[in-house]
């Protein structure tokens, strides 16, 4: 009889650490950036596979160290934009905070790989979903940047977003990676039968597992991504006015940012009047396009209202408004040619206040505590308030879902606008404070996923780029360049049908996270190496089951 398959022994510690670092770098390479260009999405699958192999058969402590190294190798380059103008300390602190989550995942992976009835790949995939669910919620309301799903804007797995949102995409990527890891482990655990070529038994299970990984990866391509208009189309003009400077002082010159956006809009109006440009139905300005409060500064109000009258259609303006109280609010305002800004602040259909201001960027939690570590906390002189209503605005006869910058990373903020009736989405953002870093293209990848997830066209409009018109299938059109003045015009489709992902909401994420906990609890205990009576994998009796 051929010998029974056996589990490979845990890899040596140096190999574990090398695999973890390589896995983290593979995860980083999957995302778009200056070095990685559009992003090498298959390396996200490779990243999961490397960390899975690195932690196979390990104890929780070694798994935790592997996860931490993975997290550092991934997040340090991925979040390089966070230190563009504030230095190494905030960048490093954010990296550490994110890496800790991967340390927890690494500690859990050895046990998840001992799931019963050959459920190890499924268990590993649920672990990734649970990790990202936690990161999206704690601490300080969460920081979802770097989800596996956000690396898949050009991948077939993107289609899974229409079924279960970003958690479904992450699950697909992680399941494929875990299957690849199982293929590698199959090669290590299956000796050849007597008299047979050694390559045959080693390759059969490995090939089957690799085919399963490919099937999971390409399953998203089978999910329909309808792009047909259901409520007609509207022509939009997205105005990227540019800023006079990069960095934290982008608005140091009073009214310069506003004047840039007004000038670009007035130029559009002249082209419409001359017949060289079709009149838009809506004009969209980005976050912080008015660098001063138009309600407190009559000159700013006059500039904005004149731009709306010149173009003759509603204009969505991004402005920082004083109040309530000691706070300021990051607001989208609908300005009409007839009424200007009058009444917009009191009308929930004409203004939206960002619900999720970014911690340490728009508000400072525990200011006195963090001041001990850096006086840069006082760069934020006034905290931004949290908005209290859904981002659904009315512009003419169109219902627009407004998402402001950092919010595009959060599933529920985008979903609630679509559930409320948004016919297309706009992501207002200001990327001037991140220079020419990777932040803008990473954010665009998120907007592309949101288009598929919601079944809506998305317009991402930035002060300095990258801006783009995105169709409901996630394809970006007419991308702008960084730090240029540009006006993107095009027809966006209006849709009302809700995707499965919109209807089921957070249910897939919660179910998969609960399944992860269940599999952790019910997983078989590992061998007690080095103890009397302990049994190593190689000593398993012939009748014992072999984990997949």
TrEMBL record:
Enzyme class, one word? transferase
Originating species: Kineococcus aurantiacus
Molecular function as annotated in GO: N-acyltransferase activity
In the bilayer, the protein is annotated as: Multi-pass membrane protein
Ranges for region Disordered:
527-548
Q: Which HAMAP family match?
A: Lnt (MF_01148)
Q: Which UniProt keywords apply?
A: Acyltransferase, Cell membrane, Lipoprotein, Membrane, Transferase, Transmembrane, Transmembrane helix
Q: Does the keyword Transmembrane apply?
A: yes
Instruction: Output this protein's name.
Output: Apolipoprotein N-acyltransferase
**Which NCBIfam families does the record match to this protein?**
lnt
Q: Where is the composition biased (Low complexity)?
A: 534-548
Residues annotated as transmembrane: 39-57, 64-82, 88-107, 168-191
